[in-house]
Amino acid sequence: MDTTNILFICGGAFVGLEKIIERRAGQRSLGFHTDAQPATANRRNVEILEQVQPTDLIRYGLIPEFVGRLPVVGVMNDLDKGALMRILTEPKNALIRQYQRLFEMENVRLRFTDEALETVAELALQRKVGARGLRMILEDLMLELMYHLPAQRKVRDFVVNAEMVHGREINWSLLEKAG
Asked: What is the DSSP string of 49-112?
């Protein structure tokens, strides 16, 4: 196969690549390393990853023929809480809007408090999987609700709050009375 006109884009966390770069560059750290600010540690990792060379990618495990097809390497910063909240709400097909449309099919207006959105973003940060964590958390949270909601004919408005996101528990008896 002729790969001359094929664009390869590789994305991922590449966990451990920074250690290979540190060894090559002679920036090895000994002992216990503690940063008072996690943002400082993240910035340090980005600075190290920006020094990546093709030999580092080969040592990491990529085959040389593949590395040769990667002429440009770009390093991206981790998403912060604000970015995760924007991903939840701003795009035309944002996760929150998707769930709201699903609930509209059952004639229920779904709303999230600001605190609930912040909690979802914080939990996603803790999982350290970027925006994928948002979907994981919302799927866990909404699964039971989507299953039981059609049976709750009196419910026309449903608000997700931070306590629900933390506990992932829905008080069905209150819902039945809410009608």
From this structure: HTT--HHHHHHHT--HHHHTT-------PPP-HHHHHHHHHSSTT-HHHHHHHHHHTTT-EEEE
